[in-house]
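Lecture 7 notes: from sequence to structure.

We start with a single chain of 558 residues. Read the sequence below before looking at the structure.
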Amino acid sequence: MADTTWLTLAPAFLLGLTGLLVLYVDSIGRSTKGPIAVLSLLGSLAVAGVAIALPDALGLGPAGWSFVSFTLLAMFGLALFVDPDASNRRLIAGLSTAGAVGAFGIAAAFLFTFDGEPVNPFGDALVVDGMSLLFAVIVASVTAMVTLASYNYLAGHSYQASYYALVLLAATGMTLMASANSLVTVFIALELASLPSYALVAFLKKNKGSVEAGLKYFLVGALSSAIFAYGISLVYAATGSLQLTAVQNAITGEFTGLLGMGVVMVIGGIAFKTASVPFHFWAPEAYEGAPAPISAFLSSASKAAGFVIAFRVFTEAFLRVGGGEFLVLGADWVLVFQILAVVTMTLGNLAAVTQDKVKRMLAYSSVGHAGYVLMSLAALSGGGAAATAKIEAGQFVLAGGMMHLFVYGFMNTGAFLFIALAEYWDVGRTFEDFTGLGRQAPVASVAMTVFMFSLAGLPPFGGFLSKYLLFGAAVNSGFVWLAAVAIVNSAVSLYYYSKLVKALWFDERPADKKPLDISSRPVGLYAAVIFAAVVTTAMYGVFGPVSDAAIEAAAALL
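Now the structure, written as tokens:
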């Protein structure tokens, strides 16, 4: 009987396959179009025949053979629509967006029909559960918005197929990070997500800022990968295992120097991926120099992927739940995350206050939000006097971090895509450059106002709901002081978010600034920005079901 558990990884497979199909479309020439179309059609028919006659051949089963057949059929259809003498921009962007939307739909369908029983495709190296599906939804939705917006943003640029393929392959790695159940697969998925990201940051090859940002990101990323890999090796040396549950079983419960050093170095690698202090210094440079859609992609999807491996690794490998109590293993990483949470949210928000460039302000704002999500690990060991209360409090605070990342995926992506729209119009970079834009582009400016107030945590937007859940969970866990620090930082953030809203709607444009020339309304960028704003505003309608899924996912971990 064929093993079909691999189908649970369909969102990751679809993202990766779409990236390869984009490269396939770009490679078709005048002399190869006909032969490729014929071979693809014949191959599809042959595979369909095998699926009927020998369904269990090679262990793929009917579903596996059908997947191969439909892939070949898609290659045939794409070959018919390709114009070998044109750039095929619309086809490539549409295919990329369709693949991301399809991955989102599949992940969402799996999430809301999930029966609570984890699936382990390919042995114990990967796991598909509620948390992995929730984060697949986040990554796929951000990818769909980014690819849609990039259609207009990349107008006139070369190597567009490579751009979309890199985005989709990075998204594949991020989706697999959510399912990684071994330190080896965590590292491989992390690198699959990181390597395309370095190239994407430096995509604007004629822009010195983009190239410099890509180089800095690559160098810091290589260093953090080395630290993370060395930490994994120390954990293996101390426990003799790499699979997360086996690592936990091998730890006696006492802190040891070798294991403790390994845990700290793993924290360092994750801190880089989530742009947490002191590994945050790459983020402002990379976000400012990168194409704005890539800044949105890295600050939302990549950050969510970094946190999902933190949630899984530290709750399954370095935390033991027994007798209703939490036992922290390897090192006191809860204390480390408490320090990181306070320092990250405080430094991120204070640095954002001092910025005069909007994109850089959003970069430091992203650092601040990383501090908020770190609370879900920093407050994990709290709870009431009763053991059950402690477990439930831990589940609640972990679910709060997941929900904040879900909402953040829409409001932060939308904010950076508004910056992409401003770059498309050549508005400028500073707050003064945005003065008067509300009168010239009111719809987009209303959307940006929604994003700013939601990021600040004001009702009735989604950011208020997620912060209320996260901060309330921290209080419920007994960490009132940590919630108080977060509330103060949210109040500080309202200053610089309101500063941009004030520039958009109320400030008069300085005489030395060139007049705004908003002569076009790029459909792809507008659609992505408005969609993100609508979801951020209408979050009350979906927050309940998604938060229930997040709580169930947290309960499965704890």
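The chain is about 75% helix and 0% strand. Keep this in mind for problem set 3.
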